[in-house]
Amino acid sequence: MRDVLDPLLRAWRAGETAGLVTVVRTFQSAPRDPGAAMLVTADGTASGSVSGGCVEGAVYELATDAIAGAPPILERYGVSDDDAFAVGLSCGGIIDVFVEAVSREDYPELESIAADVAADLPVAVATVIEHPDPAWLGRRLIVRPDSAEGSLGSPLADLRVAEDVRGLLAQGRTETLGFGPDGERMGSGMRVFVNSFAPAPRMLVFGAIDFASALARLGTYLGYRVTVCDARPVFATPARFPEVDQVVVDWPARYLQGEIDAGRIDKRTIICVMTHDPKFDVPLLTAALRGPEVAYIGAMGSRRTHEDREQRLREAGLTDAELARVSSPIGLDLGAHTPEETAVSIAAQVIALRWGGSGDALAEASGPIHRRAAAAAATATTAAGARGA
């Protein structure tokens, strides 16, 4: 819903009814992840996408039916035996979509959700998409770390679902959960789609150099909240890094340790060390490698720089297991030369670790192109210490 939230909110504020189509589950090589949405407003305008174009025509009709008063519906789309391009997914995947009407009357919580998203506050929307009693379909629970709003149909269901949703929200995960009809964890019959709106993940770039500038721009483009930190005030200026969320003048190790102590570093955080200067790198990497688990730690420099830095870190007391957490030299072997090309190589490694990609050419690989987050999480955990070439 995040990708259509602005037009959805405009229609809601105008007192209109809109049709919202949300991807709630995917199988095989589906083109969009759960949470991707398509919106149709009362005037027939469509925005967003659930399949990159494959089934938009079919779901458009369902959305207009919802505007006209049709009840919420769960639909599945896959490859059509007769004509894969007519109503199916040409990529061979399968998606489940949930179609519902959205208006002030049936979605009074929308404005508060939008306010939380705009303020980078964690909030999740849990919606019943399957239930033996059709009256439960479309009911939703708005879950925050310390509160819940709305109801799915019973106090027990609200309690159980809210507990499980908070676990997903803490990890920023969007997925479908199964329960018994009254929220029983060991039962079946009710499926609840959890759309988590967690704050954007962070990218910390240390070293205000031209390579850092290119990486910071790309990090912002990829949806990270980017911070650039350098101890040299002449280089660490907003004028040199206009696209980033924050420019910090501080000793890198001190700044990072402060963020760790404040609890602002989590498993989604990306840490890129671009300084390749021992007086900055060694204390900074010591703090990073002894800190909490993060998605990626990379350090820039030649192989000679890497060997020297690794020796200094060993002398500082770091173990082989701790050193295995850093990717150095940073990035994938793309033959990059310029700052922009190097930024792409770093971003490519970050994306590959996030989704479990191999980094090989797709033309020479087999299996699905689009990997699901659950599988990628396991791969990323084992690959987190991989070193770029």
SSE inventory with pairings:
Layout: H1 5-13, E1 18-27, E2 37-40, E3 46-48, H2 56-67, E4 73-77, E5 94-102, H3 110-118, E6 123-130, E7 140-144, E8 147-150, H4 155-171, E9 175-179, E10 190-197, E11 202-206, H5 210-221, E12 225-230, E13 246-249, H6 252-261, E14 270-273, H7 278-289, E15 296-299, H8 303-315, H9 320-323, E16 326-327, H10 339-355, H11 373-383
Order of helices and strands: HEEEHEEHEEEHEEEHEEHEHEHHEHH
Q: What share of the residues does DSSP label as strand, in percent?
A: 15-25%
User: Uncertain runs with pLDDT below 50, 5 residues or more?
Assistant: 80-88, 373-389
Number of helices: 11
Per the principal axes of the C-alpha atoms, what is the gross shape? elongated
Fraction of residues in H or I helices: 25-40%
Radius of gyration from the CA trace?
23 Å
Task: Compute the separation of the termini in Å.
Answer: 38 Å
* Average predicted confidence as pLDDT: 88
What structural class do the secondary elements suggest?
alpha/beta
> Strand arrangement, largest sheet?
13-12-11-14-15-16
Largest sheet, in brief, is: 6 strands, parallel
Q: Please provide the count of β strands.
A: 16
Protein name: XdhC family protein
Organism: Gryllotalpicola reticulitermitis
Domain XdhC Rossmann: 203-350
Pfam families: XdhC_C, XdhC_CoxI
Question: Which key terms come to mind for this protein?
Answer:
alpha/beta; 6-stranded parallel beta sheet; 16 strands; XdhC family protein; MoCofactor_Util/Proc; XdhC_CoxI
